[in-house]
UniProtKB/TrEMBL annotation:
Main location, first listed in the record: membrane
Transmembrane as UniProt keyword: yes
Protein's name in the database: Rhodopsin domain-containing protein
Entry's Gene Ontology cellular component terms: membrane
Pfam families from the UniProt entry: Fung_rhodopsin (PF20684)
InterPro entries reported for this sequence: Rhodopsin_dom_fungi (IPR049326), SAT4-like (IPR052337)
Domain Rhodopsin: 3-245
Location relative to the cell: Membrane
Annotated TM spans: 20-50, 70-90, 102-125, 145-172, 184-208, 220-240
Membrane topology, as annotated: Multi-pass membrane protein
Organism: Gnomoniopsis smithogilvyi
Length: 345
């Protein structure tokens, strides 16, 4: 998230709604991480329930762990929902077609309903509320938490697939440089990994033994942490390009100048024909070569620029549109010889 903010600062742009949503997702992830650490060091995560009293001195067994587990599940739900919504908000600014916006807004509605429903399931699964962690209450009852978790996890996976698949037809139609396509492939590859992690987690939930929850839930909890972290990475990758743009442009300039110096240093010799000399083929190709005066003295002027960056600031582009950037190198040779003239490449 820090790199995402630095990218915005580098472009001279203020944070937008997608950035604030992602920042909120990171805050929720920090809350989840705090609950995990508390469960590990203070509540017996990773140990059998019968070992907790002996090792941690807790008379209530898994009660302290169940409190941390409730906080963890709520924070994970909020973080996942906010990261997905952040991606869709960012896509709506890029792809402005009517149908894309309609589907994206419906998906956002589905994600919001999923988050609210999941939090209600977590907090209302047991009656009274304290029975969520204090199983000694004689009148306490709980609904089937495993079944409800599987249903909620399935809706979460459906939302993941919609978020990943929705932009693909529009991205496919764009003319992109190779490294941009590779970046997008990596981005969506991470996205499908999130889906796979979610599916494995849902498959593991029925295997959790509620009578020994501190020990049997370890794998599902690890996958939950991994799912949340990968979702945040996925949402941040598309906006990190400004951090690496200058280094790529500098490399291109150095390569261009090297080529110019190489060609200027080669002596051009050839057979004289009607006052002109055929240039020596240094390219390795068999195409006809241009003709120049027999005595050639020339100078090279080179300019490197960017058609969008040098003439228009990023803020000048209307929000929601697509900016097409073209990098170019201009090379002008002024040739003086027996036949005066100007030759341009």
């Amino acid at each position: 998230m820090l790199l995402r903010i630095l990218g915005r600062v580098k472009l001279g742009r203020s944070l937008d709604l997608s950035d604030y949503l992602m920042l909120s997702s990171c805050v929720a992830m920090l809350g989840m991480t705090g609950a995990v650490m508390s469960a590990i060091f203070n509540a017996g995560l990773g140990f059998h329930v019968y070992e907790i009293k002996e090792i941690f001195g807790l008379e209530t067994g898994a009660a302290e762990f169940l409190k941390n587990l409730m906080v963890l599940r709520i924070m994970a739900t909020l973080s996942l929902a906010l990261s997905k919504i952040s991606i869709l908000v960012l896509c709506c600014r890029i792809f402005t077609t009517r149908w894309f916006r309609i589907i994206a807004h419906c998906t956002i509605g589905l994600i919001v309903l999923w988050a609210i429903g999941t939090i209600l399931i977590i907090t209302k699964a047991c009656t009274p509320f304290e029975y969520n962690w204090d199983k000694t209450i004689p009148t306490g009852t709980c609904r089937s938490a495993t079944l409800l978790s599987v249903i909620g996890g399935s809706v979460n996976i459906l939302a993941d697939f919609i978020v990943l698949v929705l932009p693909m037809p529009y991205i496919y139609k764009l003319q992109l440089a190779t490294y941009k396509k590779v970046t997008l492939m990596i981005t969506f590859g991470i996205g499908f990994i999130v889906c796979i992690v979610s599916m494995v987690k849902v498959a593991l939930l029925p295997l959790v033994d509620n009578s020994d929850v501190t020990y049997s839930i370890q794998k599902a909890m690890i996958l939950t942490i991994l799912e949340v972290g990968l979702a945040i990475i996925l949402a941040c990758i598309p906006v990190l390009r400004p951090l690496f743009k200058n280094s790529m442009a500098t490399k291109a300039v150095h390569q261009s100048r090297y080529v110019s110096r190489t060609y200027s240093a080669v002596p051009f010799t050839g057979q004289k024909t009607n006052g002109f000399t055929e240039l020596q083929d240094i390219s390795g190709h068999s195409e006809p070569l241009p003709m120049r005066p027999e005595k050639t003295y020339y100078s090279t002027v080179e300019a490197v620029g960017n058609s969008s960056e040098d003439t228009k600031k990023p803020d000048d582009v209307e929000m929601g549109g697509i900016t097409v950037k073209k990098e170019f190198t201009a090379r002008i040779e002024v040739v003086h010889g027996t036949d005066k003239g100007v030759h341009m490449d």
